[in-house]
Amino acid sequence: MSGNWRTGAVAGDLESRLNADKGSDIKAVLVVHNETSTGVTSGIVELRRAMNRSGHDALLIVDAISSLGSIEYRHDEWGVDVTVAASQKGLMNPPGLSFNAISQKALAASKSAKMPRSYWDWQGMVKSNETGFFPYTPATNLIYGLREALQMIREEGLEDVFRRHERHGRAVRAAVCEWGLEIVCTTSQEYSNTVTAVFTPVGYDADQLRATILEHFDLSLGAGLGKLAGKVFRIGHLGHFNDLMLTGALTGIEMGMRAAGVPHKEGGVMAALRLLAPARESSRPQLRRNY
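Structure (tokenized):
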């Protein structure tokens, strides 16, 4: 489906494509809920409604890797057939675990699929899970880490986790706008609350800016990927993260732009602080852990 890197998936375009698929050649629609490389969040509810209106039988498969545990996501209520997620990002673990939520429709489709597969076959996992085991050696240390991460989310409260990420997303965007820089995502309703991708001014290399910030302030920012390489830096604000971490990161970026000679307006950090200050007590996450 055609589109661009600055907006989410368009429900109307999807509906048109499915309506035109008279031979049911399309077997699945794969959507990234929160695109890490661009900071764009697609509306899964609207996409599901478009699929329902078309009457098409395709599966809806959603990549929720950088949204699960940070942005509201509802597999069953939104009518998703397969959700793919992972242990890094909002679940605060190293990479290495993957999670699939599977509808009965998707499970039935997998039984009749003829593509060769082994590790990616759900049947072995479903059978072993009936007795609480795995069909192969599990990453036990990561499972213990996941248990702790889920307990941290329960202690803070899932709705409060979502609100914290929303506050931090707004604070980052306030800083970027005050600096006079451009956010990659062009639609405010699709702004990501876990990552913000930012264009450097024309003629200034984003990777050189990242290198300057890393060298002088020991702060690592995400790189632009694909067609955005060298044009964009990415600010992550998800998971085990609080106001002080955020303002420290924004301070490092503002100082780094000054050190690298990247043109910008002063005051981005103060813009973020003004937004964060009124709710700092009521929204403060419980990040202290006892080990």
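The chain is about 40% helix and 15% strand. The longest strand covers residues 28-32.
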